[in-house]
Design brief:
0% strand, flat, 470 residues
Length: 470
Amino acid sequence: SEGHGMSPEQRQHMLVEHHRKTLWTVWTLILLGFWTAASPFTFSYGLGMVTPAGGRELWLSDAARVAAMTWSDLISGLLLIVLGWRALTPGRPLALWLACGIGVWLNAAPLLFWAPNAAAYLNGTLVGTLVIALTILIPGMPAMISNMKMGPDLPPGWSYNPSSWVQRSIMIALAFAGWLVSRYLAAFQLGYLTEVWDPFFSDGSRQVLTSKMSESLPISDGGLGALTYTIEFLMGWMGSQGRWRTMPWMVTFFGILVIPLGLVHIFLVASQPVMVGEWCTFCLLAAALMLPMIPLQVDEVIAMGQFMVQAKREGKPFWRTFWKGDTVEGKMDERLPAIAEFPKRPRQVFLASLWGMTFPWTLIASTLLGAWLMGAPALFGTEKPMADIEHITGALIVTIAVIAMGEPVRICRYLNVAAGLVVAASPFVLAGASTTGRINDLLIGLAVIALSIPRGKIKEAFGSWDRFVR
């Protein structure tokens, strides 16, 4: 019968059984609804009200901030109760998806309304995260069983599975660390902390976080970073080990969050000395945590793209495949150590989480040279406009080198040839560099060019993508 041996009746039976076993998540969702609705009256959002760092002007008055957060939590809580009650009956995936949307809103509302005290922010973000977990993570995707397609874990022609739990574990860890760092920055910007600690740049962090650049957004950019990391952390848990073929839509959205938005995040942080004239240690740390996520995620996006291309060639409906997934001929990944073995074999499991990445000495050296170039203006007394070139190109060299450590995108290293040319030529065109600074830039530029030529070792296979691994 259709659906890999399962009749509609069998799928319905599995759906009901799965719903019965995970019913506790729905009841917990209802309880969280009562909690959320009662929170404004329990924590008194108007008590201990704070103002944003740097005396920033807000689009809401203090009274409006309290009212907005109160009504947001009250309405969100009531909606969770109603949607949870509906979800007690199996076969109502829409109720769970809508409840998940409420969870996302609870994470975003404290930023939009500039939550007047720390309790409002903490309560909204923690409850919102729990709601997302209880609706689409712990019980699995709503209606997952109805659309489940059996099949292989290993993409055709690949030597490893980029969607395995071992591969995802390092992404989850990096996203969680970024969440903690960004939440600290948000706490200062929102006014819950009176000072922000910076071990290297003294008052630099405060100046960056209260600068016009930071205030160009209507919400806290640190809070936006925390929200992004929250979603990335949660999306790391979503789906099975075959999600490159069962959930193309989710891999696509996850890839958008990590790759293009991650590059924007890194660029904004790298622009701080240019736009503000200062560095921020924890901002740099947040960007440093985001950077390796790009090469770690790109392989799963490529595997998903290959699957979608193959499905299209076979005449399968594009959008149905994109939203519901499908299957392919292939085999299971017998090489991969189980994530449960981590306590006994931590080294082997950790190394397996890095499959698809290698670290040629040439790219490591380029990374170090880029970091050196970012610090060169302070070391050699370089002034604008040459200092700006060194800051931006240094960050660019680091970014390209780390991304190129991902074997599927090793070809990206050639972009550092152009970056090296800019670094080598700029001191002779632009003012601001001393004689020592000019020599430094010339040598670094030429070194980066030379280091960008060798490909380095490639250990894994990527199916039809192998022809692009150069």
